Please model this.
Amino acid sequence: MNILKDEPYGTTKGFLLSSAAWMVAGSLAGFIGAVEMVAPELLGNIPWIAFGRIRQIHTNLVMFGFVGSALVGAAHYLVPTLLRTPLHSERIGKASLWSWNLAITAGVVTLSLGYTQNREYAELIWPIDIGVLIVLALVFYNFLQTLRRRKENLLYVSIWYIVGSFVFTFFTYFFGNAVWNPETGSIIGIPDAVLAWFYGHNIIAFFFTTLAVAVAYYIIPIVARTPLYSHTLSLIGFWTILIMYSHIGTHHIIQAPVQTWLKVIAVTGSIGMLIPVLTVLVNLWLTMRGRLGNIHADVAGKFVFAGSVWYLLTCLQGPLQSLPSVQRLTHFTNWVVGHAHMGILGFAGMTALGGVYFILPRVTGRSLYSARLADIQYWLILIGMTGFFVVLTTAGLIQGNGWLNGEVVYRILPEIHLYMVLRASLGILIAGGAIIGLYNIFMSLYGPKGETS
Amino acid sequence: MFYIGWISLTASGILVGILVFLWALKTEQFSDQGRARYLPLRDDFPMAQAQNPSKATGEVYALLFVIAIGLAAMATTVILTLMSLGG
Ligand code: HEM
Ligand code: HEM
Model:
């Protein structure tokens, strides 16, 4: 078997299938973590799934495995298509695909064995960090070469976002993981907190957000069957996100003794973020105006539209929770976990799934195995995500309010127990959706010819 | 003095941005915005067509409901914040 086989869109197909598989594994890991919060003793004290480890396995799997693979796979379709030029090298693409999956697998194994650098979203140990950096460099090189040979000189906004994402993610990952300190992957003291959240924030901004926005900008005009409302506006959004988003990571540590001027920059920048966010949303929504029926006739359009709604809510919440007085209430509570799921699953994840279902028929040349199963997955995730949001926000407000009133943790925990039970139950919907998705995506790639969508 | 590092990191990000912006100007990326809007539309893969393209479907109402819940949650948060400030 030739794992670097040169076949049209082979890289994209590989990434899409990987995403589906990691979504199953990642949601199940999340589910285990949720069960441990309901009944800490239930699963015994198996070290490799102890909460501290399974949480990191969950976040790495769902973020880099599920959402990351889908978005990188989509980028491998969008770049050649929009540049009207075949991908520079499918073999390099395949090499990045396998290295990416190897890095994620190694990540799960090492995290479960307790090898971690313990900085959020930067937990993976040094050798794996190097693997991730190599993948990012390979992908960037492949895109750059494709760009240089492009037949379409004009770059559509999605291309700007994709290329920008890989440049910024490489640097964010390199500096954020302090790769020059292999032992710890960190520097020390407060400077490290600032660096860690420079990283934690920028990886969300310049990997998940920008790639998801690229996918949305591509799919919406096609599904709505109309040109983008304004390309100029889309570019304004791109350049403002570049300027606004890169230096506000300190809003994650407003409660820590960090220099005040850094906090001021972070809070003002967070509010300023409304500009790039609204340019994207206004542009997309004006493109679909009067065409919502068309958007929802197509399962991919549906996922992307729901993603845009979650983007709105996440980014209204974001500036709100960056305000120090609000954060006194919400920080360190489940409120933030609600925001995180809304951003990564609701916005980036649903948009990524839209990308998957849009691209699959185009790279296989036949319709989806089942549009109906994709539709069921849509509802499971939408309902599950909405439930997560309500439950986690409520639990978070109970925690924050109680603590501000001087109540101690052990009295608050029983009060939020019910919400932890609800969260675990809702997780079944999302995990179920993931399993259905994997089946559908696998069958669309390798199964018999399916129904027409 | 760690923030020298932070400032150089942020500044180098912005610098890269400016350089690419200049490249974009040079290669006339901002000149033909009217055509750029149409670039995705070369996709001609057959797609399902709604009978009435402008009709809002059940999904739209479900999402409006989601927005309403989201706004209500944020309003509650603001109220609790204000109460905690007052007390
Ligand atoms: C498949 C899509 C999912 C994505 C993209 C996702 C994403 C995330 C992210 C980003 C975090 C970190 C939150 C933070 O640090 O604030 C997180 C934590 C968590 N997630 Fe998920 N998640 C997904 C599904 C699930 C499912 C199905 C469950 C099961 C109930 C779940 C349960 C959890 C738990 C228990 C935590 C830890 C929260 C804590 O430490 O308090 N997630 N998830
Ligand atoms: C206008 C845009 C946004 C702003 C201003 C913003 C702001 C914030 C702030 C202030 C926090 C820290 C909360 C705390 O710890 O108390 C946070 C956490 C988080 N945000 Fe956002 N956010 C925005 C958009 C997004 C988007 C689009 C995503 C996902 C793609 C996202 C994902 C996350 C995640 C995963 C966390 C949890 C980090 C952790 O583990 O503590 N955010 N956000």
Remarks:
- The pocket of protoporphyrin IX containing FE (ligand 2) is lined by residues A 120, 204, 208-209, 251-252, 270, 273, 277, 314-315, 318-319, 321-322, 327, 330-331, 336, 339-340, 343-344, 347-348 (CB under 6 Å).
- Residues 1-7+63-87 of chain B form one domain.
- Chain B has a mean pLDDT of 88.
